[in-house]
């Protein structure tokens, strides 16, 4: 509990640093007032709006006011949607979680059997195919893979929808697109971890006692291989969010990634700031969760 409390307290300065970086980038990106008023707005109207939202204040005053509002959950109002920015982000977050969870499930279902199979059949044709597929899967850009899947399954075969959200069929192509690169990374990691563990003395001892190979692999070897696997799964949170930016745009998936891209294009800075802070908090909490799971999987690990 002491470790968890310390880590939770460390989140505060990290989020402050992120908030400063985001606010600085937004500050130097330009004046958003031009997008908030019609083209025929007078200079007097522009200055009046700037003063009403505090853009005439010095940088440090604006940043202090921003932090004070964020602590209260107020990221400002989106001029595009005409409502609180945080509420807009919360509305889109379930769609991103749905896509991310589906992508992780696909990645795990592919990576675990292929990683173990590749390790137990080292230097065989199966190993060559699995490692080759992992390299190709990691090398393929998300946007290219998404477009190819749309052309084949939606345009040519007509069996899956091109874009949008609403049914399980809409989820298949985006989840495969987002999960392919993660599955490739996980497969390589499980293979290397299993190869290292399978050469340990206690594995050879278990085999010499006549324990079945399946039991040795899954009960003894794979359990210990889970520790680095949990690491990469937790760290893939940032990859998932980053990949979601592209995947959601390609498939018009109404998640936080598409929202962030649209907000950047329209310079809706309240939405941009809310999205970035929520994403940062999710990544930090997932890393904390990974540390806690380490301790559960291997009690020898000390949470220092």
Account of the protein in words:
- The longest helix has 38 residues, at 213-250.
- This protein starts with a helix and ends in a 7-residue tail after the last helix.
- The chain has helices spanning 2-28, 33-36, 43-52, 59-71, 85-120, 125-139, 142-156, 168-198, 201-208, 213-250, 256-266, 269-297, and strands at residues 77-78, 83-84.
- A two-stranded antiparallel sheet has the order 1-2.
- The chain is flat, with a radius of gyration of 24 Å.
- The chain has a domain at 86-297: MetI-like (MetI-like fold, Orthogonal Bundle).
- It is an all-alpha fold.
- The model has no long low-confidence stretch (mean pLDDT 82).
Question: Any key phrases for this structure?
Answer:
cell membrane, MetI-like fold, mainly alpha, 78% helix, 304 residues, flat, two-stranded antiparallel ribbon, 12 helices
Content of β-strand:
under 5%
Overall CATH class of the domain at 86-297: Mainly Alpha
* Biggest sheet strand line-up: 1-2
Find the structural class using helix and strand composition: mainly alpha
Low-confidence stretches: none
Q: What is the CATH topology assignment of the domain at 86-297? A: MetI-like fold
- Count of DSSP strands: 2
Q: What is the CATH-assigned architecture of the domain at 86-297? A: Orthogonal Bundle
Shape by Cα distribution: flat
Q: If you average the pLDDT, what whole number results?
A: 82
Organism: Oceanobacillus polygoni
Membrane topology: Multi-pass membrane protein
InterPro entries: BPD_transp_1_N, MetI-like, MetI-like_sf
Subcellular location: Cell membrane
């Amino acid at each position: 509990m002491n470790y968890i409390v310390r880590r939770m307290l460390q989140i505060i300065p990290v989020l402050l640093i992120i908030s400063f970086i985001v606010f600085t980038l937004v500050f130097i990106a330009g004046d958003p007032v031009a997008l908030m008023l019609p083209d025929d707005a007078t200079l007097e109207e522009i200055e009046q709006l700037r003063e009403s939202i505090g853009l005439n204040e010095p940088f440090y005053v604006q940043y202090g006011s921003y932090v004070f509002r964020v602590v209260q959950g107020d990221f400002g109002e989106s001029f595009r949607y005409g409502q609180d920015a945080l509420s807009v982000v919360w509305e889109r977050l379930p769609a991103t979680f749905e896509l991310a969870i589906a992508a992780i499930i696909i990645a795990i279902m592919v990576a675990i059997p292929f990683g173990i199979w590749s390790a137990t059949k080292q230097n065989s044709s199966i190993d060559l195919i699995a490692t080759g597929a992992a390299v190709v899967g990691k090398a393929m850009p998300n946007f290219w893979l998404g477009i190819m899947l749309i052309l084949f399954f939606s345009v040519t075969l007509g069996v899956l929808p091109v874009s949008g959200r609403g049914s399980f069929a809409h989820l298949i192509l985006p989840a495969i697109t987002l999960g392919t690169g993660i599955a490739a990374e996980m497969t390589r990691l499980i293979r290397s971890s299993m190869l290292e563990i399978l050469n340990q003395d206690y594995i050879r001892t278990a085999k010499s006692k006549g324990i079945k190979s399946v039991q040795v692999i899954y009960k003894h070897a794979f359990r210990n291989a889970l520790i680095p696997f949990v690491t990469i799964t937790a760290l893939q949170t940032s990859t998932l969010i980053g990949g979601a930016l592209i995947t959601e745009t390609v498939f018009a998936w109404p998640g936080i990634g598409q929202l962030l891209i649209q907000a950047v294009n329209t310079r809706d800075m309240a939405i941009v700031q809310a999205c970035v802070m929520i994403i940062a908090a999710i990544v930090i909490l997932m890393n904390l969760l990974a540390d806690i799971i380490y301790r559960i999987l291997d009690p020898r690990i000390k949470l220092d």
